[in-house]
Batch of 2 targets.
Target 1
Amino acid sequence: MFDAFIQGLMINLQFKPFIFMLIGSAIGFWVGILPGLGGGATLALMMSFIYTMTPQEAMPFLLGMYSVVATTGDITSVLFGIPGEATTTATIVDGYPMAKKGEAGRALGAVLMSSLIGAIFGAALLALSIPIVRPLVLAFGSPEMFMLTLLGLTCISTLSGRGKRGLLQGLLGGGFGFICSMIGQDSQAGVLRFTFGQLYLWGGLSTIPVMVGLFAIPEIVNLAVSGTAIAGDVPLGKLGKGVRQGIKDTFQNFWLVVRCSLIGSFFGILPGVGGGVSQWVAYAHATQSAKTDEERAGFGKGDVRGVLGPGASNNSKEGGALIPTIAFGVPGGPGMAILLGAFFVMGLVPGPEMLTKHLALTYSMVWTIVIANIIAVTVCLLFIDRIAKLTTIRGNLMIPFLLFLCFIGAFSSNNHYGDLIVLMVFGVIGCILMRYDWPRPPFILGFVLGRFAEINLFAATLRYKAHWLYRPKVMIILLITVAFALAPYILKKRRLSNEE
Amino acid sequence: MELKRYRLLLWISFLSLSMLWVAPELQAAPYYQGKRITFVVGFAPGGGYDRMTRMIAKYLPKHIPGKPTIIIENMPGGSSMIAANYVYSVAKPDGLTIGNINRGLQIAQVMKISEMKFDLRKFAWIGSTASDANAFCIRADLPYKTFGDLRNAKREIFMSSGGPMTSGAQFTTLIKEYTKLNIQLITYTNMADALLAVERKEVDGNGSTYSSLAPLIQRGVLRPLLRGRAFEPEIKHLPVDEDMTTDPVGKKVMAMRSATDVVGRPYVAPPGTSPEALSILRKAFAQVAKDPQLQAEAKKNLMPVEYLSAEECLKSVNYLLGQPEDIVREFKKYITF
């Protein structure tokens, strides 16, 4: 196994694979930064170029692009409050407020370094888990997946606002997100729900227009109303110093970064769940690291830990998502489905062969994730000063560009005008939520998890009737869920009694 | 003078004759020369329909005189109904737009779905590049070796599917209803999750397209027991679902469903497309399907390519749409879109 591990590195360091990896990383850099141009769609376009390549060249080319997308997607989230990818939305919650406070450099330094650590962690997990990967993925059936969805939903309480009505607002937001996830054809009988006779809604609401509308449009409106630059009138200070501070923050909160990487990898392994959920669970966990109520109140207003958590989990999930893809041919996420197609083009059959006969190639994928991210983060850090200065440009010059990014990003989901309508509707909803200080993350969590919860609950009940409730793993996950939900209150009570 | 006139006559005759002979390329070139063909794919990038179309688009230009440029436009939504509506009503019938639509739209037309703004019979059909055989498979570790063994099973047989309207779900539902097998169909998010459920032994099997199940069959995880009318060589020997029921209505309904498998990857042009353009496109598709480079790539992709002519496609569509009302009513009881 160690031989294959080293062989994998040697494959990537050969001239052609290395060059292709660089090209892929360069493409991924721009794809991540441009909202809406998803890594999955780009993978599909890049497939045309791999037919004349060997597997040793094609995999670094494709994975080099895909593994960098989440890293650079965080840049747009921090600087403009527009998610570069659907999986980088949670970074906006604290990253954009940091940019508004003139701490764009610090936020970028933190998110890039945590992304790099997350990527290395995810790759390491993939490398180490190869001997146990098949039983690991097979261990989670529909009942367990449903319970994990519940675990994700308990994050609503952590993501909710503070104050007397904070939890109620969070639950209402999550419930509304749940309802929005029901739009479209139901998974069991194909019944159309809330489609209002519109073909566009048959497949449900697309994630990108919803997220971009909910998070980016209110910020653009805010920018227009304030009339200032993104960083406001706050002096930007020495950006280089901010970046160094951000990198320092990453290592000062190292164990938080590692835990969030673990969360990302874990959710990455679960097929279908992916980055849409892991970023929010990681963010919720990051908020739990607050020791006092005042500290907790700082989340959502520019706490660097709110950037570290999602940054780490977004990248670690890629290594995790490769696990079911390679071991079973079951995509760990939407991009992995396309990568699977690439496997077949290369004559590779996902399954036991990838863990035995082609083990060196599997390890070369691990190394690609690591090396591509190191290169991408290094390049970003070199130009970060210039990138962060974008937040000082006058708002009325940036707004047309930002709106353009939002509309192009939303439209690229389905190439349908319905995407633009969804964007604007959720833009209005986002503005209202922001105006009345209602939290927006609970809605996204309910929206992302709703359909997944429904399908798994149906599957579990049809298959096991009520007996699925007594399965040992279900009980364990339930206990973890209860602990996760009650932890903030117990810790708070303990703090208060200590203070007394 | 006489000689001069004779030479002049000879030259004029020679030039006239040479103008009558036109290079083959030039005969067809005026239509597609310098033009761009747009494939409108009714699904998102990366899926089976999209990958097939991109593969065909790569080799098609060399089979069309004039070698036009080809671009792919993805127009997902409504199970490709949005794309079909667009090709039918909006796209110009100038031979420059080709729709790649869901074969399941045949069922949508049988069901008279209100959002459907087209009649499949009125499209200018180019053909289909694959048939999509369905296979009913059971886990190889279970003691059921034949379909007869399943009939004698003393417990529910759990089958997974990748969605309620997939051909696999329809195929399995009809087998359940008309062969009276004790099947419980469990729907997952997508086909990949449905197959993972097989691997982790949460379900007993899966009935779906052979191309999706082939990797698990080859690895010995699944054992195919039954097939639909359309078949791949590897499952030709299996009994057909229609033969497993004695109900004449059931046979008809199953045959109707199987008709959609035959036209596995439909390609259509807008109604009113000129016969010349249509002829060029049909010929090009027939030739590209035999292209050795395309065949090699299709083999690599595990996506067999076989051209079915426009006439054959329309025959299948007309068969489906020409069924009597009572059969359609029975069909609608079990099949959704």
Target 2
Amino acid sequence: MLTSRRWRRELREEMELHRELRGDDRRFGNELLLTERSRDMWGWRWLREFGQDVRHGLRLLRRTPLVAGLALLSLGLGIGANAALFSLADAVMLRPLPVAHPEQLMQLYTQGPQSKRPSPTFTNPMWEQVRDGQDVFSGAFAWSANQFNLNPGGERQLVWGDWASSDYFPTLGVEAERGRLLSRADDFRGCPAVADISDSFWKSHFGGSEAAIGATLHLDGRAFTVVGVMPAWFYGMDVGTRADVVAPLCAQQKFLDVRDAWWLTVVGRLKPGVSEAAAQARLGAQMPGWLVASAPTDWGAKDKAAFLQRRASLQPGGLGMSWFGRRYGLALEVLLATAGLVLLVACANLAGLMLARASARRQEMAVRMALGAGRGRLIRQLLTESLLLAVGGAALGALFAGWAAAAGMRFLDAEVSLTPDARVLWFGIGLTIVAALLVGLAPALGTTRQSLAVRGAAGQPRPGRWAAAAQVAVAVVLLAGAGLFLRSFVNLANTDLGFDPQQVTLVEAGADEIQVPAAVLAARQQRALAALQAMPGIEQASASFLVPTTGLQWDTPLRSASGAIPDAFFNAVSPGYFATLRTRLLAGRDFNGQDNAQAPKVIILNETAARQLFPNGKALGQVVEQPGGAAPRRFEVVGVVQDAKYLSVREAAPATGYFPQTQLAQPFEIIAYEIRSPLSAAALAGPVRQAMTAAGAGAYHVESFDDLIAATLRPERMLAWLSGLFGGLALLLTAIGLYGIMAYQAERRRQEFGIRVALGASRRAVVRLALGELTAVLGIGIAAGALLAWLAARSAQATLGELLYGLRATDWMTLAAAVLVLAAAAVTAAWLPARRAAAADPYSSLREE
Amino acid sequence: MRPDEIPPGSLVLLILKTLDRHQPLHGFEIAEAIARLSQDVLRVEEGSLYPALQRMLLKGWIVGEWGQTAENRRARYYHLTASGRRQMEQEMGQFERVMGAVGRVLQSQGLGVRGEGLGVRG
């Protein structure tokens, strides 16, 4: 019935007959209006009008494909970049765990009297107290993320997984896909070694076959039996990685009774009817008792007192533990803000464009309004045109965003399910609508404002000037930001580490050596070092307990007669360590073969430690003391080395002391070998395998030190890259926008320029005239942008400071550079068309009118 | 004498009643019939007739079929449906109730304040 043409035809036929039969034409009225009103009876008028607007808009856009293409591209990039960043941020920071009722999950923290922040980690004895004594949770569990080595010997093959207590799966509401999941029956002292595997691990490692259940899996050298497969949607509690293996706590034999190893995270599900506040109060009351029962027995009185004073607190645990969020969260937020600004620039650009086009249609609009079209209707039509652009851009943007988000995931090495959820979709839709409004509202309002008396078209319509100035201001802010992050990253990459990681290969070993007698272990480590040192093609090799910047730390207080360091950091190294890593020896000597177990205990300090312990000068030959146990241990200082980074590249080198490995009371199981060689880590893999096997060493892992350090700089690198990209994009868009405005103006004033030139004005004067107005716009925009950038930097100094290195957020040189770059680009962009217009032959421009 | 405006809302009822008396009719015939039956007091504006016919088609009170007039011209003839007849009766009842009340108000001599009771006569 609604098929338009036939319906209209029939109605027209009816009305014609009526008219004929009536005999006079005059009072029949406007047929078209009649038809429209009849049609209106059927309702859906707004839909029909919308359809008309869409068709009309498409026709207009097709007529100017270049403009339409440019608009689609810039909107697509703008919307897509925002959507990609938001979906990344959503997947790793905002999305609750895909378990039942994540809002009921609470994470338990304790905070010592001296600490600034509550700590999420527990020892196993503490956890056992909580587990047995709590009564506010319907289910509570403890877990610890771990990288398990699947290879019983030789080079390590690592997978991420969790040690988990018995109520891990039941509390989260996860059911097995195959076989069975760990439960109460599996968690008791002396339990058999069983494990669950993830769906993806089952497919990749066992080929998805049924034989996986009951198969043997080696984890850190111990044989486990696979008893079940976890469902595919379960990624574990740590957002950003997937737990491929889950093993019961009781099978982790190293730390179960250690009272000062803090390795477990505790989460519980609130009982129905118990509020968070009530649970926190109850746990707070019970905690002192639990602490007494699990306190370390061999700590000094002061440390023990601090332990017993720890207070309990609860925080929502439904978002999971996101190391990823902690590491990249701030950077992602900054990038999201930046992408938002770029979108703003793109919209301002397009708004300017639409304004220029709309001003050409001003007369058309005025006529239509005089004929009776409602202003609202016309505005709706113009907005529909910009909505078309926005929707087209959003479609492009969605494609781009999908690709970009996946690439981002890979770059950041994160494992999260990226299927967009409702939040991301609504964000995208909202952004599209906002973009459409920003682009279309000003032109729509502007062109429908007139009466039929067309005003003289001198100069730029005012909203156009605002749009241009706004673009320039935002571009300044973005360039300043990009400059900050780029310089910061360059500072970080070039900072003096105190050692030289280039051409150094690391061999990290021993993480799964359990209960090997000390003498055997020490001998094995010596043999391995000797074998590595004997490899052909290398310059030097050494060994150490830990490698700087890997996150491992060993810290205790250190004292001397003239100074004290409350928290000094330590490492145990072999002779030649400093030479291998090229850390300068400033005084005294390196360790040598004489510093063995029987010789007097020695220590090498770094500059900072030496300065803090001996402010008056010489450290060599002095004695330092490490408190602990029955009697403090004493060491003679035999050397002072240059400061070297310890915890991370960003943090300053702390006061550090080095012991000879041979003088340790007990050799550490974990050990790292540093090999300096022009050969790459890959080239060394074979010889390393031979050496390690010959020495009887266990599993190990080979990597380049340079790569390791580069990996720790990933957030800063990402920030530098992307903010630079966005800044460049904003610069390009602004330049294009200014070029367009200038070209349009020059075109309109061609006749005027022709007259001026004919009357004797120099070309330069004409160019200056043309540029005149735009210079004002530029000046305002740059000033506003600089002010905005400076204000933003000042107010966000603390937060931004975390992301920057070696310079402050209010660094004026960076801001000045940004202003200069933008000014140069803008002036060039505006000057080119102005020059062309002024250079045109005055006779031809005059003749054209 | 200039024809009077059709009271708003009554056009549909007029059309329904007309079709009830002489179905089927085409558009012009309906307008003529209303004019004739009201002795030229009511003239249907074409601008209202056709939109009203469309609305009634939408509601299913009438159906239209193409046919031939006496002069062999194509015309769409409308006739009443069962639901249209129900609607007509409902609207007629409503119309009589409303008109009766209006009439009573117009005829009344005022409220009884002189001890004659507050009833409405008529």
